[in-house]
Amino acid sequence: MNFYMNKLDLIMKNTFSFFVLPLAYISGLRVQSIEENKCVVRVKHRWINQNPFKSLYWAVQGMAAEMPGGLILQNKIKNSGHSIAMLLIGSTSIFTKKATGKILFTYDAGEELDKLMDDALQTKLPQKISINTKGIDEKGDVVSEFSFEWSIKLRSK
Questions:
Q1: pTM above 0.90?
Q2: How many structural domains comprise the chain?
Q3: Contacts of 97 (CB under 8 A, 6+ apart)
Q4: Are 109 and 70 in contact (CB under 8 A)?
Q5: 98 and 33 Cβ atoms separated by less than 8 Å
Q6: Which of 60, 77, 97, 125 has its CA 20 to 30 A from that of 88?
Q7: For the domain that residue 118 is a member of, what is the CATH number?
Q8: 73-88: per-residue pLDDT in tens?
Q9: Is 38 helix (H, G, I), strand (E, B) or coil?
Q10: Range of the domain at 68
């Protein structure tokens, strides 16, 4: 039953992205798996998301790289029961290899976000964190690396 609920959750997340993030959906981004502290987003190089060099466009990689950490953070905020604002405030990237085929972007350090949330709730001050993801191709090679700086802030009542 857990498998089917997980599969249903993925279908719902991907359907949700069609309405909330249509460009990501059209570009082929799909949540492959999501757990409490880990999320994997996949994207496959296709005609619709390629650059003139016949590889995955950098902006598509950026969307796919940002999504795993953003989803985990969003889920943790939702589950906290508090009104917390989240904002992407910076990003950097490195491209190391031509991105073709299926690329996976993983964030698996959700425990760091638990500490971030605790600090925000205890201090009532804005908190920042860098969330890092790598794009890994089907051969296991790193094609890109991204770092996203997020800020969260407890909203006043």
A1: no
A2: 1
A3: 137, 141, 142, 143, 144
A4: no
A5: no
A6: 97
A7: 3.10.129.10
A8: 999 999 999 999 999 9
A9: coil
A10: 2-154
